[in-house]
Design a protein that fits this description.
The complex is a heterodimer of chains A (about 130) and B (about 220). Chain A has 4 helices and 2 strands. By secondary structure, chain A is mainly alpha-helical. Chain A has 2 domains: about 55 residues; about 50 residues. In chain A, strands 1-2 form a two-stranded antiparallel sheet. The N terminus and C terminus of chain A are likely disordered. Chain B is mostly helical and about 220 residues long. The radius of gyration of chain B is 23 Å and the shape is elongated. The termini of chain B are far apart. Classes of the chains: A mainly alpha (about 130), B mainly alpha (about 220). At the A-B interface, helix 1, helix 2, helix 3 and helix 4 of A face helix 1, helix 3 and helix 6 of B.
Chain lengths: ~130, ~220
């Protein structure tokens, strides 16, 4: 009797554990409100001059929103680590590849304004330069 | 004579099995038969979303390379309507909330509420698409076409691809509503809603990046 009762309790306890790991609907709404507030702060940078802090603050807010949606809404924080590894592997690969590509095109240092929308001129490397 | 043991309902309690709540921790009724103990469908969706990072990474990188390289035609600062796009962004963000509430509803067995949240999510997504269509048409009227300059080409390609993804997501959401109305989406298949939800949240996450990089970061 006690053995069967123990099994029954264990099953109910395990079920309660699973349900407890996911946020409640109230928590989801709170997270959405935080995301909305961060979005408002991002939009504020359009109207208020943040000076040299503008781009870094926008990037930080973007990453925070990305992480919050991934962790809470997509349940990455509560699910098996394998899902996190699979997604993050693709994400890291994409970031690394495209940082390398942008570096190859001297995106971080080049500031010339090249017209590639009109005919004429000559092609220098992969860029069409008008004369 | 030995006493027979009965559970609280009067029957003999069966040995407890691990309780699998659909969609929780990636467990589905079929998950216990996989080598990982997790749902293959869910792993496949995460792998697909990982690959989508490469797609959108390429489009965003191309936009970053091209946006300052036009000397004729409208420039980003001349053409973008940030307040309007901010409202669109907020609408898409809230659709992520309604999507997760739909998943939560079906996991609780509340099918009516699940359908309500799915329809709300699809409606918000459609509103976002309507906003994009309005934005594109106003840009064209102001002189920024697909072939006007390379900023225009990169911008329309990037946001157009995103818009197609949102549209496909809307179709998936409406399919779920129809399945639910036909009684073919029981609580045991809550993971199906969760997997569509993953796709929808990813589409929202991509817009979070696009909105910041394309619209907010100055030239």
């Amino acid at each position: 009797m006690s053995e069967l009762a123990t099994h029954d309790e264990h099953g109910e306890h395990g079920h309660a554990d699973d349900a407890a790991h996911h946020p409640t609907d109230t928590k989801y709404i709170q997270i959405a409100l935080i995301l909305g507030a961060i979005t408002a702060a991002e939009v504020a940078t359009y109207f208020v001059d943040f000076g040299p802090l503008m781009v870094p603050s926008l990037m930080v807010m973007m990453v925070v929103k990305f992480a919050m949606v991934a962790m809470f809404f997509m349940h990455l924080r509560f699910d098996s680590p394998l899902f996190r590894r699979v997604f993050v592997a693709g994400l890291i690969t994409a970031v690394a590849v495209y940082i390398a590509a942008l570096t190859m095109f001297e995106f971080w240092t080049e500031d010339d304004n090249i017209d590639t929308s009109t005919g004429g001129g000559e092609t220098v490397g992969m860029v069409h330069v008008s004369r | 004579m030995a006493e027979t043991t009965f559970g609280h309902e009067g029957g003999i309690a069966a040995p407890s099995q691990p309780v699998s709540v659909p969609g929780v921790h990636g467990e589905s009724p079929a998950a216990h038969h996989t080598s990982t103990g997790l749902s293959n469908e869910k792993i496949a969706m995460w792998a697909f979303l990982g690959s989508e990072c490469l797609l959108f990474g390429g489009l965003i990188s191309t936009y970053l390379l091209y946006r300052n390289r036009s000397v004729e035609g409208p420039t980003p600062s001349e053409i973008f309507d940030i307040p309007f796009t901010s409202v669109s962004s907020f609408v898409l963000l809230m659709s992520s909330l309604t999507m997760v509430l739909a998943v939560s509803s079906i996991q609780r067995g509340d099918h009516q509420r699940c359908r309500t949240w799915l329809i709300t999510t699809a409606s918000l997504g459609a509103s976002f698409i309507a906003g994009q269509v309005y934005e594109f048409t106003s840009f064209v009227r102001e002189g920024l076409g697909y072939t006007t300059n390379i900023f225009g080409s990169a911008f329309y390609t990037l946001t157009g691809f995103h818009g197609v993804h949102v549209s496909l997501g809307i179709l998936m959401l409406l399919s779920l509503v129809i399945l639910s109305l036909r009684g073919r989406l029981p609580t045991e298949r809550a993971e199906t809603v969760e997997i569509v939800g993953l796709y929808w949240h990813f589409v929202d996450v991509v817009w979070i990046v696009i909105f910041t990089v394309v619209y907010l970061i100055p030239e």
